[in-house]
Fold:
Amino acid sequence: MSGQIQHKTLAEGRWYELTLAEQMGNIGSEVSRARLSQGKNDARFWGAVERGLELFNLTLRDSRWGERRKEISRAYEVFCDAVLGGEVYNSDLESLDRYFMNFALLAMGQRLKPSAPEDAKKNGKIK
Structure:
């Protein structure tokens, strides 16, 4: 692990503009990368783990999430357990990948859904 910031532009502030679903979906991308490389390519596996942990830490620092930090912290803990063999929670990256996929799908739905005023303007109901 390099110890260097991997997501520099996100750490500089862009991360804090994303919704929780977008943040968790991005974490899920790294979980998926770790899952796909586990047991096949150690460098890719540990790189994905490091980036995932970095994104978890950025999310935990986001003051908007208040009580949601408990869930985020638990997911962080379960991710660490899965990476280290799942001995504490019997966790695995495949299950975590499914968990995080829900956030990615929610984030995609949020981006695709037009806002009501914009939609009404397009349909000619508001000028």
Observations:
- Residues 8-122 form one domain.
- The radius of gyration is 17 Å.
